[in-house]
Amino acid sequence: MSGEYVSMAHGAGGSAMDALIKRYILTRLGGSQAEVPLEALDDAAVINSIVFKSDSYTVKPLFFPGGDIGRMAVAGTVNDMSVLGAEPLALAAGFIFEEGFPLTDLERILSSMNETCKEAGVAVITGDTKVVERGGLDKFVMNCSGVGRRSPLLDGNLHEVRKFRRCEAEWLLDSNIRAGDQIILSGAIGDHGIAVLSAREGYGFETQVQSDAAPLNHMIVKALQVGGVVSMKDPTRGGLANLLNEWSEKSKVGILVHDEKIPVHTGVKAACEMLGLDPMEVGNEGKVALAVVSEKAHEVLDTLKSTELGKEAEIIGRATEEFDLVAVETLVGGKRILPKPLGDPVPRIC
Ligand code: MG
After folding, report:
1. What is the pLDDT of residues 170-191, one digit of tens each?
2. Which of 82, 145, 202, 326 is surrounded by the fewest CB atoms within 10 Å?
3. Tell me, what CATH number does 69's domain have?
């Protein structure tokens, strides 16, 4: 780890953050008997069948095309619980303000949280408010935590998996994927990171690119109703590149994806080309990747496509035993390794 201080890369969702968590946090805070413990580094934890998640938000600017910190916080926490196979029950919100923060901005954030809660069908039931002196913080940061319960659809979903292959896991964990599973992506990548970056720096892409921040729990329910889903994860910081590498590492399986199958909107493509970014590494806040047994993949895909949030879904690749890393195949058949990014190329997007 470079130096003795925290750097921006340590919060960017890639290998630098991974090293910080493993070296400093897991050595001191791990060791519980939870069903899905801290050490699993999954999207949420499970203890006594209660799904539990905590997430902090430091996005800059607080308001951006397609969303704001409040919408992201509710959606992000709901999504991290939902991808494990949980039904979100309730949220907690912790706010930290810099002295002088405009109360009209607070009203906007709270209204947006309220709307997003209604979309997801959850409510904030507890919270906390703190203020630090001017200069002690950049305007406003917040935490959103949540509890959820096992989805009543999860057993039926896993039953569909077990018709076709062994699966001992009781939750949709990062370590569940096996060779042959198909990888589905619910829609286009890079919108959130580019929208936030463009709003921050004034690049002008915001006319074309809007954040995708959205709660995905209702769409996920539809996929679980079909069944055969073995794992789900949202490609947030570090983007799809980080997600696929986490799956590959934890499931000890190779993943091959096809470049031309990965949806990227024109505005994001243009922005990434101009700024020298890889859309695969840019964060999203309203997308989910699903690993599905191949026998059920097309049915799950069609179901996702029938929803508003999943209408651009694609089968982007598959898990394989041929190698043990993540590779991207181009249209002409060339393959390149897709490494785990050091971190998201765009800082403070969530
Ligand atoms: Mg996640």
Report:
1. 999 999 999 999 999 999 999 9
2. 202
3. 3.90.650.10
